[in-house]
Amino acid sequence: MSMPQITHGTESRCQAITDIIASIALEQTALSHILNAEGEKLQKVIAESSNVEELLCVNKSVNRMVDSITKLEFMLQSKLQLFDDCLCDSCRLV
Fold this sequence. Notes:
Elements: H1 13-48, H2 52-81
Helix pairs in contact: 1-2
């Protein structure tokens, strides 16, 4: 997946808000990919290891990552809430 191209311009307020919301959606997509990778990591270690210390270490690592992603999701939700009452009538979907 390639990075989207962001161009500078004199866009309308509605377009700027749309771009910010789209960037939040892209961040959420990236976080979902990270969570999926963490799940795959857990599955691989569980399938291949019988070492309790190794399992606990990986579990701790995954827990830290999930905790960090949870905090990021709260930040993204806060960003979205900034625009709850900022949309102009022409931008609202009916």
